[in-house]
Amino acid sequence: xxxxxxxxxxxxxxxxxxxxxxxxxxxxxxxxxxxxxxxxxxxxxxxxxxxxxxxxxxxxxxxxxxxxxxxxxxxxxxxxxxxxxxxxxxxxxxxxxxxxxxxxxxxxxxxxxxxxxxxxxxxxxxxxxxxxxxxxxxxxxxxxxxxxxxxxxxx
Length: 155
Prior knowledge:
mainly alpha
């Protein structure tokens, strides 16, 4: 569990650095557009940065229960029903992220084979696709440990 926490916090820190880059490149582009010429590939850089920020924040947000919960139906269940619903939804989320991770790895393989590149920057697309797929697997592990922890709690 400590490894998962460390990885999640490291991803959050990396996401914060990328978010700072995203703000900086956007601000630089706005300024340079006004006085000279825009930054080449800024839309691609902002898109990639945004994707990194979002996926890097997922594991630590799950660890800290930072997601929004819709408790309207859950509040009406018995404690055993709440626990069962929590377990069921966690299992579904684990399966979702595993399937998504596999699909992204398959897509990344296709991008690598076809030589898919970003239009302006001409960077390969597949490394980012692998990264997002790997984060999906990390997220599924985080949710699994959360499920195990919650099933062991006495409430």
